[in-house]
Each structure stands twice: as C-alpha cells, then as structure tokens.
Amino acid sequence: MGLTRIPQKTGSAVLRFFAYFGQVVGLIGELAVTLFTCRPRVRLAGRQIVDIGFGSQLVVVVTGAFTGAVFAAQVYFKFSELGLGTATGPVVSLAMCRELGPVLAGIMVSGRVGAAMAAEIGTMKVTEQIDALRSMGISPVDYLVMPRVIGMFVSMPLLVAESVGFGILAGYVMVVHIFGVPAVWFEHQVVSNTTLPDIAIGMIKGFVFGGLIVLISCREGLYANRGAVGVGKATTAAVVISSLAILVSNLFLSFLLNHFFPLGSSGFDS
C-alpha cells in the first residue's frame, strides 16, 4: 500500500508544479497585454521603487559587506598558505560580481519585499478587495502587479550593484587594513581583472531574480484563500519558492552567461 502511494504523490507533485508554472505564465501573459493596452501608473510605480529599492538598501548593503569581508578573509587564509595572498582582491571582486552579490541580494529582497507583496495582495484577495476592483472595471494586474514589476525591475539591478560594491569595499578593508596587503596592489589587481562582462553578469542576474521574485510573490497573493491562514501560507510560499527559484536559476544562468561572457573576457565580442 505504501509503495503505491509513492507514484501517486510524485504524480500529484508534478501536476501541481505544471499548474503553478501555468499560472505564472498566465500572469506574464496578462502583464504583456496590460503593457500594451493600459497607461503606466507612474505614481504607483514610483511608490514601489521607493518601497523596494530605498527600503531594501540597508539589508542588502549589510549582507553584501559582511559577505565580502568574510569571503575575503577565508580566501586570504588559504591563498597566503600558497604564497598568493595578494591575489585575494580579484577573487573577491569576481565572486561578488558574478555570484555572491546578485544571489544574496535576491534572497534578501525575496525575504523582505516578496513577503510584503504576497501579504498585501493576499489580504486584498481574501477580503474581496480584488473583486471590488474588477467590479469597478479596474484590472488587478494593471493596478497591483504592473507597478510592482516596474519597481522591481528598476530597483533590483541597483541593489545588486550596491551589494557588489560594498562587498568589494569590505574585502578591501579586510585585506588591506587587517592583513596588510598593499592598497595599490589590491586596487590594481581588482581593476585589471574585473571587466565589464563581469559587472554585466551581475546586473543580468539581478534583473532575472527580480522578475522571479515579483512574479512568484504576486501569484501567491492573487491565489490566496481561506482567510488569514491562507495569507500566512501565501507569504511563506512566496519567500520559499522565490528563494529556491533564485538558487536553481542561478546555476543555469551561470552556465549560460559564462558561455557568452567567459572569465577573462574584456568586452562583449567574445
């Protein structure tokens, strides 16, 4: 009896995944239609830029700085054993630009902003405010989702840039002022080994991660039900699913973007 339930549960999970994926794709389709049929709500989008971008700066900066400092320390500890302590700077810079900066910024934003989006829209859903919008001829996607999408796409690359910048700066403080590596050498190595494609990878990942966060969070809010319990579950699911989506998509993005922008490339023609 137990063996027969395994394929049943597996099949049910697969069906739920495809249903979920279909709902997200449907939301993307509604956003595309809204983009070409409705005027942008500039005031609402501006409010979301402030809430997402300005409101998330502290947590992103602190996360990026301490991650950069710890990563620099660990790299220096090992590299110094091999006589390569002065090569710590480029490793920290490339790691922050290509991987640590965008991933950590995305996860922190999903915890702070994604949860808030799902809770706000979910509360409106269970209290029938979304139905009231439809009765007045206002599209919930146009009024609730599109401003958040615009706010996320504008804010997320900037937050990634802050995470990367403060991570490299914290690594500089750690390596130069604590471990005694010459500042001029650190700066020269970072500038000469960190190229425009390295920065572009971080920005592209931030853009993609922002899209995943806002789509998943808004989907959870729009499909919330069963009152306060449903809102709580939607909030938790938004954070968990968006964080997992960031980690999984980061693997595929790393392979794809490294194909177009390999390490050591100095431009976009490689």
Task: Write up what this structure looks like.
- The chain is mainly α.
- The protein has one domain (43-260).
- It is 86% helix and 0% strand.
- The protein contains 9 helices and no strands.
- It has helices at residues 2-37, 42-54, 57-81, 88-126, 129-135, 140-178, 183-193, 196-222, 227-260.
- α4 (88-126) packs antiparallel against α6 and α6 (140-178) packs across α8 (196-222).
- The termini are far apart.
Integer count of domains = 1
Instruction: List segments where confidence is low: pLDDT < 50 over at least 5 consecutive residues.
Output: none
The averaged pLDDT comes out at 89
Helical segment count: 9
Concise account of the structure shown:
The chain has about 270 residues and is mostly helical. Helix content is about 85%, strand content about 0%. Helix 4 runs antiparallel to helix 6.
What are the SSEs and their pairings?
Layout: H1 2-37, H2 42-54, H3 57-81, H4 88-126, H5 129-135, H6 140-178, H7 183-193, H8 196-222, H9 227-260
Keywords:
9 helices; 270 residues; 86% helix; single chain; mainly alpha
